[in-house]
Design brief:
This protein has about 300 residues and is α/β, with parallel strands linked by helices. About 35% of the residues lie in helices and about 20% in strands. The protein contains 10 helices and 11 strands. An 11-stranded mixed sheet has the order 1-4-3-2-5-6-11-10-7-8-9, with helices on both faces. Helix 9 links the parallel strand 10 and strand 11. Helix 5 packs parallel to helix 7 and helix 8 packs across helix 9. The longest helix has 26 residues. The protein starts with a strand and ends in a 19-residue tail after the last helix. InterPro entries: Rossmann-like_a/b/a_fold (IPR014729), Universal_stress_UspA (IPR006015), UspA (IPR006016).
Length: about 300
């Protein structure tokens, strides 16, 4: 099923009907509106683990799966309501379906829930989210637990920030660039975190080196129409350093290691450690996105959608 199909760049949200995926829809609406892009709600008719053995059972399961996927799409559209009108609903039989392949050229961001309907965490081996990351090759925003409504008194409450981890790898520039875009689109400050295994120099000297290394990107964040950027150096493990600076209202941006497969999301990696803790929304930059970082639609000649009243 395809409703309101478009060919323009889009934010894609994977929705399987779970509560977490519906929260991801909320996050995706905000991202689509913020980026002024179309929103694609993607549902997958997944037959795995149904235990069907006979043709009749398979036919019934297929029919039920199709109906369930379409119902999930309708629920997502109802949840979106009038918040964003540029919405496409796509139902595909599998992640390998042509409909998903067509989205690979359009997707600027994939949004997924932290757990699926079967309880698998984001990017767990064999999960739909893992397969979608491989297929779409764009940055992935994992919707974290929604923070509680703020109290009436906001004394001492800090403004949300974008927290990004950088290291000495060449991919750090791309990860930081994506974090800067996220901070600028939100009007938030940027906190750049570097985890040092040991202090070979004063921490402020290390911070100055990181600043100089990424000066162009960081100075763009300090432009008059954007919030400030700062660099912090912690002598600790990367996961601990990132979690120290990320609060429930923030956005945490991390890269991954390895090529081809999601090597950076295996046990023991920084990205995996952050996702296991999930303190807030986490933007993961997989290897494919590093290799082919696509700028925002308004920077590459694409036409963003017109303004829509909320």
């Amino acid at each position: 099923m395809v409703v309101g199909a478009q060919q323009d760049p889009a934010v894609v949200v994977g929705c399987d009907g779970s509560w977490e995926s519906m929260e991801a829809v909320d996050v995706a609406v905000e991202e689509a509106a913020r980026r002024r892009l179309h929103l694609v709600v993607l549902t997958i008719e997944d037959e795995a683990d149904r235990g069907v053995r006979h043709l009749g059972d398979w036919s019934r399961a297929t029919s039920e799966s199709t109906l369930q996927a379409e119902a999930t799409g309708r629920r997502a559209v109802e949840r979106i309501g009038s918040r964003w009108s540029h919405v496409t609903v796509v139902s595909a039989e599998t992640v390998e379906s042509p409909q998903v392949e067509a989205l690979a050229a359009r997707a600027r961001l994939l949004v997924v829930g932290r757990h699926g309907s079967r309880g698998l965490g984001a990017f767990a081996s064999g999960s739909t989210s893992e397969q979608l990351v491989r297929r779409l090759g764009c940055p992935v925003l994992v919707a974290g637990p929604r923070p509680a409504a703020p109290r009436i008194s906001t004394v001492g409450t800090r403004h949300p920030v974008v927290v990004v981890g950088v290291d000495d790898e060449p991919s750090a520039d791309v990860v930081l660039s994506i974090a800067v875009e996220a901070a600028q689109s939100r009007g938030w400050a940027l906190t750049v975190v570097y985890a040092a295994p040991r202090a070979d120099a004063e921490l402020h000297v290390l911070a100055a080196r990181i600043w100089d290394r990424h000066a162009d990107l960081l100075l763009s964040q300090r432009a008059p129409d954007h919030s400030l950027a700062r660099v912090v150096v912690d002598v600790t493990q990367p996961v601990a350093a990132l979690l120290t600076h990320a609060g429930p209202q923030d956005l945490l941006v991390v890269g991954t290691e390895g090529q081809g497969r999601l090597a950076g999301l295996i046990s023991g990696s920084v990205a995996r450690g952050v996702l296991d803790q999930m303190p807030c929304d986490v933007l993961v930059v997989p290897p494919a996105a590093v290799l082919a970082h696509r700028p925002a639609a308004h920077d590459n000649g694409a036409s963003p959608v017109p303004a829509v009243d909320a």
